[in-house]
Amino acid sequence: MPHPDVIVKNRWIKLLGPRLQEPSLWHINRRACSGAVALGVFCAFIPVPFQMLVAAILAIWIRVNILIAVPMVWISNPFTMGPMYYFCYLLGVEMLSLEPEGFHFELSFAWLVDSLAAFWEPFLLGCFTVGSVSALASFLLVRILWHLHILNHIKARAKRLHNRHRHAHQNR
User: Fold this and answer.
1) What's residue 160's pLDDT?
2) What b/e string do you get for 81-109 counting C-beta neighbours within 10 Å, with b at 16 or more?
3) Domains of the chain, residue spans
4) H or E stretch at 71
């Protein structure tokens, strides 16, 4: 992972100014990481090109780790987009009590503009719902895993201290 100073000094990134100096964009802590994972997962379900740019801008705006948020968007990729978006469409159809129509996804801006008009309501409702639920679930999962990691660290430290204390008493 490149050092934040290297990233901030990039001539294109410099255009964003002092907002990139915000420490939470680069820190690895529970809040910045769990928020970044949730943001990236949510953005993965936004059916627009340049999801990584959306994730980066939102990460800067809500001050979460940008180096985690952006790659999380890669959950949606040319192999997963079709099934993801089809599931979102079917969920939206079910939520709106509609009959499903022929849904043929193509990875192109032309498809987005031309085809979306026919079924945009169930599709976008499904994307928003799945994105929101997935973001919440990933946020909670990261929080829980972080908490468990801390508990394990505390237990291991207590065990080390106990063993040191016991070893010191045995050597007297």
Assistant:
1) 85
2) beebbbebbebbbeeeeeeeeebebeeee
3) 4-170
4) helix 66-72
